[in-house]
Amino acid sequence: MNQIDPPTAPSKILVVDDVPENLRLLSTTLTKQGYKVRRAKNGSMALMGAKNDLPDLILLDINMPDLSGYEVCEQLKANAATRSIPIIFLSAQDDLEDKIKAFNLGGADFIGKPFQVEEVLARVRNQLALQAAYAEIKTLNQELEARVQKRTAQIEAANQVLKQEILQRHRLEQKLRHDALHDSLTGLPNRSLFMERTKKCLTHTINNPDQQFAILFIDLDRFKIINDSLGHLTGDQLLVACAKRLNCCVAAPNTLARLGGDEFTILLEQISNPHDAIVVAEAILEKFAIPFEISNRSLMITASIGIVIGTDQYHQEINLLRDADTALYKAKELGKARYEIFNQQMYVQAMHRLELENELREGISQWQLVLYYQPLISLHNGKLSGFEALVRWQHPRRGFISPGEFIPLAEETGLIIALGKWVMYEACTQLKIWQNKLPEANSLTMSINVTGDELRHPDFLSSIDYIIAQTEVNSHCLKLEMTESMLIENSEQIIAVLEAIKNRNIQLSIDDFGTGYSSLSYLPQFPVDNLKIDRSFVNAMNINQQNTEIVKTIVTLAKALDMRVIAEGIETKTQLQSLQALGVEFGQGFLFSKPLTSELAEKFLLQSVS
Ligand code: C2E
Ligand code: MG
Ligand code: MG
User: Fold this and answer.
1) pLDDT at 490
2) 511: Cβ below 6 Å to ligand 1?
3) Is the CB of 512 under 6 A from ligand 1?
4) CA pair distance 341, 278, nearest whole angstrom
5) Out of 98, 301, 315, 579, which could bridge 584 as a Cys pair, Cβ 3.0 to 4.6 Å?
């Protein structure tokens, strides 16, 4: 089947000629061909006609009386609305120059007069076909352009999305990198970043040996107590506040980092001498002299600082941190809230401590620990009332090591838990042996020293129960001695443990009373039975009256709180008499006996009941 083209509107042709016959002939011929023809007999009418109703083609005579065809053409081409109408010039002047002028003015074609109708028709058809082709190309171009624009917009949109994604990914990457190198609580650089920067510094110093740097290792004193007693939230707030204060003492390019827990480090990238590091350390100590206001509470916390100077003697950054840590340990040992600069002697001591720690581990498992027993005497009648178990370490090479040396080490390393259990088991077993041998020893008491770490340990109560059950010792014969510092914590956890101890009929004593520098207001809250006056007060009693007054005050306080007083370290008769005069109930000291081996203690016991 033939395809039928949709009916199209007839092309409009404007014929312009001042010769009426030409005008008629052309218009009738063209009309017959189906064109819609309008006529204009001069230039001005042609211009008007073309503007009023745009024709598809103009047949334009050149020689006309008013405006020549050239002028009409010029004006039509100057007007944007009529510029693209194809113009076929008709002229009797058929020389080459006229044609060139006609084409230069924008004419589409040129027909010489007299014309052949067929030629005019053929040229008109050509021009219209050309025009239609142009129009189609234009439409196609426009469509293409529109499609290109649409596609471009789509690509741009996709590009935008892609850019956004890249940006997000970049941000995420940056965040991940930041998180990997920073502490989430304080936002400070973490250990990795700190070590990275320290390494750079060390490399620089190795290449330029006259340029030194320093590391300050800062540890908050007794932070664990605050954290345990006031809760982790307050602990965290305190850490953030400490980080802020430390930050005030550190300026770029130096680095303040949080190593973890309550440990911070500072890298001072360039110092001219160790004094520069000391200045920073002193500034920090000063900052910590002011209490922190946290959750409506005023908290006092100090910091200890270990300093190491980075020189080309070091080859590995980790050794710098190790030595700063050793200096920090020294600062703690010397009383906390101070700084110490690392020296080689500290290293030797640290190695010794490390050795001792390993040996203590061995010592506990190889039964190198022994208990000594110091008699506790009633000052009213001079009779033996009980013993205090005091641990000693019989080292196979070093000989006798006093608890003052290894108990702190055991606390630091956590070995105190195993050690404490052993002491309790051993002391209870010994007491039971004596009580089984002698009916008079039935009311004999055994005092056992316990540390805060032991009390806070979740297994503490169950291990007491186990030991009492195993040794069949009477619980009311047991006295647990703890230091004042444990009570300062005032935590609910500690109070609950102490109550549970009391519920088992075990007595509680505060050891070394008076040395804790703590407020007395905490005392009534704790179910304590005995106060053991520290031997420094007893010792000083005869030196001046003031010390006697202190002891007197402690006795009065104990009476008011319904507690018994035990005096430690009685060495002379005068001391004994003064204490008796003050009404102190019990006493311990070299005057009566030094701590004794179990055999000698048994002898002492036998003598005292005979
Ligand atoms: P502490 O509980 O206050 O024990 C009294 C200390 O004073 C003992 O020292 C004892 O030998 C000494 N001492 C007693 N009478 C006198 C005296 O008249 N003059 C002088 N100058 N000293 C006297 P030791 O045995 O060296 O114990 C030191 C500290 O080690 C103890 O002080 C106690 O806090 C701790 N300790 C001892 N054994 C243990 C234990 O088994 N567990 C725990 N956690 N700590 C223990
Ligand atoms: Mg004691
Ligand atoms: Mg004591």
Assistant:
1) 62
2) yes
3) yes
4) 9
5) 579
Q: What is the H or E stretch that residue 372 is in?
A: strand 369-378
Question: Using CA positions, which residue lies closest to atom 38 of ligand 1?
Answer: 390
Q: How far apart are CA 600 and CA 327, in angstroms?
A: 43
Question: Are 494 and 456 within 8 A, CB to CB?
Answer: yes
Residue in 364, 390, 508, 575 to alter for ligand 1 test, most ligand atoms within 8 A of Cβ: 390
DSSP H helical ranges for 366-451: 403-413, 416-437
Pairing of β 87-91 and β 109-112: parallel
What's residue 517's pLDDT?
Answer: 58
Query: Under DSSP, is residue 133 helix (H, G, I), strand (E, B) or coil?
Result: helix
Looking at 131-201, which runs of residues are DSSP E strands?
A: none
Reply yes or no on whether the pLDDT at 518 is more than 70. no
As a whole number of angstroms, the distance between CA 576 and CA 590 comes to 11
* Separation between Cα atoms, residue 267 and residue 216, nearest integer Å: 7
DSSP 116: P
Q: For residue 4, name the pLDDT band (cuts at 50, 70, 90).
A: very low
At residue 296, φ and ψ (nearest 5 deg) are 60, 25
CB of 290 closer than 8 Å to CB of 267: no
Q: What is the 3-state secondary structure (H, E, C) of 237-253?
A: HHHHHHHHHHHHCCCCC
| Kind and range of the H or E run holding 232 | helix 232-248
| Residue whose entry in the numeric block shows the structure tokens 């000693």 | 392
Query: Quick one: tokens of 525?
Result: 């809250």
Which residue carries 């900052």 as its tokens? 287
CA distances (Å), origin 220, targets 216, 339, 581:
13, 12, 44
The C-alpha angle with vertex 33 and arms to 28 and 34, in degrees rounded to 5, equals 100
Find out whether the beta carbon of 587 lies less than 6 Å from any atom of ligand 1: no
Tokens linked to 223: 């932070």
Of 66, 379, 52, 319, give the one whose Cα is nearest residue 195: 319
**What is the percent of the chain where pLDDT is above 90?**
81
User: Of the bound ligands, which one is closest to the alpha carbon of residue 373?
Assistant: 1
